[in-house]
């Protein structure tokens, strides 16, 4: 595998083209993955949804997009990220064509499940981009490609305006056109990554035997889970608690997603220079404090928005730090480790909206659901301190 990587490292033009177009492709895919969040109020009116049904709709794409990161990451390592990316973008067109044509909540949920495949673009993008860069540059490189997460923010900024100006169906025609354009550009300009044809599925699944895979998965469950959850829930919070209109609420959701995404390369860069686990413990402390701030600010608009932005900063840096360590867990199986860590992180974005939605349905309050998020932060901090800070285990020497 080292010879394969040497070939990749020797061509900087291919490396930078792969990095740029992987990031752009992930932005477009993440726009589809998060398409319902900025349109949640409109969809709820169209289909007469309760709060719990609305949060179920928001969570459904996250489910498939999380679970399928595992096989998609393995396939990327085995057959090449370019091929897998192009097949994925072609598949995403199916639910994008379906959504404007459904007339029941059940069919809308099915289309939402299918569009969730767009979330697997993360595993493909990281696998494809990482092979072109040496280890000492991977923290920054993976932080950059992971900025494809800002597709959530771009969706929040653009989709409500498109819907308001041209109608609900126009949103999906716009996403279809974008997906086709980036697919064509990717097919023309990107080279296929070097792959190791001797790899087997069982070999890739061996990453589950490494404790580092599961610890990173737990940490990413919190940091990336917060990114997905709060990007999806912020419009619901703002329209419900502070009576914002959907367009303005979408802008604040975009602000959160941009903050979280833009600082991600900073987290990777810092982790290139300092011990990653030492940085991560302060990230968890910050997440706990800022989540508590949000809990006590549901009647104070300024404090609430400040809490959202601060959680985004902490979670974004944490995302970058975690993925600095992914290529070190199982050398040559970056796609497989990315798939597992990304899947668990995605599930961190699946469960909170559901739990918070159902708790709100029962109690009329969001505070208890946020208490559970803060508790998750405490669990992650303790696991980190016990195993890596207080213990003698190191992923990155």
UniProtKB/TrEMBL annotation:
Q: Name one GO molecular function term.
A: nitrate transmembrane transporter activity
Q: What is its main location?
A: membrane
Q: Which GO terms describe its biological process?
A: nitrate assimilation
CDD domains with a match to the protein in the record: MFS_NRT2_like (cd17341)
Extract one GO cellular component term from the record. Answer: plasma membrane
**InterPro entries attached to this UniProt entry:** MFS, MFS_dom, MFS_trans_sf, NO3_transporter
The annotated topology with respect to the bilayer is:
Multi-pass membrane protein
Which keywords describe this protein according to UniProt?
Answer: Membrane, Nitrate assimilation, Transmembrane, Transmembrane helix, Transport
Q: Name one Pfam family in it.
A: MFS_1
Gene3D superfamilies associated with the record: MFS general substrate transporter like domains
Q: Where in the cell is it found?
A: Cell membrane
Name assigned to this protein: MFS family major facilitator transporter, nitrate nitrite antiporter
């Amino acid at each position: 595998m080292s010879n394969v990587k040497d070939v990749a490292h020797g061509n900087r033009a291919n490396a930078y083209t792969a990095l740029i177009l992987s990031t752009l492709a992930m932005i477009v895919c993440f726009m589809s993955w998060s398409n319902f969040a900025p349109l949640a109020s409109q969809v709820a009116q169209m289909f007469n949804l309760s709060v719990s049904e609305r949060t179920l709709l928001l969570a459904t794409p996250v489910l498939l997009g999380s679970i399928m990161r595992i096989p998609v990451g393995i396939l990327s390592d085995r057959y090449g990220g370019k091929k897998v990316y192009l097949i994925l973008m072609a598949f995403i067109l199916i639910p994008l064509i379906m959504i404007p044509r459904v007339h029941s909540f059940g069919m809308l949920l099915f289309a939402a499940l299918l569009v969730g495949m767009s979330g697997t673009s993360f595993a493909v993008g990281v696998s494809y981009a990482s092979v072109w860069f040496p280890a000492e540059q991977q923290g920054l490189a993976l932080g950059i490609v992971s900025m494809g997460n800002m597709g959530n923010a771009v969706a929040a900024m653009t989709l409500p305006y498109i819907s308001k100006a041209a109608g609900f169906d126009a949103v999906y025609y716009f996403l279809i056109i974008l997906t086709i354009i980036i697919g064509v550009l990717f097919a023309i300009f990107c080279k296929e990554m070097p792959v190791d044809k001797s790899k087997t599925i069982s070999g890739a699944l061996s990453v589950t035997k490494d404790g580092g895979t599961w610890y990173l998965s737990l940490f990413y469950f919190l940091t990336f889970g917060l990114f997905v959850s709060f990007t999806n829930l912020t419009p619901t919070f703002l329209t419900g608690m502070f009576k914002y209109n959907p367009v303005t609420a979408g802008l604040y959701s975009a602000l959160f997603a941009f903050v979280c995404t833009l600082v991600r390369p900073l987290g990777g860069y810092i982790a290139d220079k300092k011990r990653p686990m030492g940085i991560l413990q302060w990230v968890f402390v910050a997440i706990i404090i800022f989540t508590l701030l949000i809990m006590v600010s549901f009647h104070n608009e300024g404090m609430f928005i400040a809490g959202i932005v601060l959680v985004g900063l902490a979670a974004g840096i944490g995302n970058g730090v975690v993925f600095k360590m992914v290529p070190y867990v199982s050398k040559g199986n970056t796609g497989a480790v990315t798939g597992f860590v990304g899947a668990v992180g995605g599930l961190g974005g699946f469960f909170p909206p559901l739990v918070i939605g159902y708790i709100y349905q029962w109690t009329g309050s969001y505070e208890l659901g946020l208490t559970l998020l803060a508790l998750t932060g405490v669990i992650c901090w303790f696991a980190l301190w016990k195993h890596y800070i207080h213990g003698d285990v190191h992923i990155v020497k």
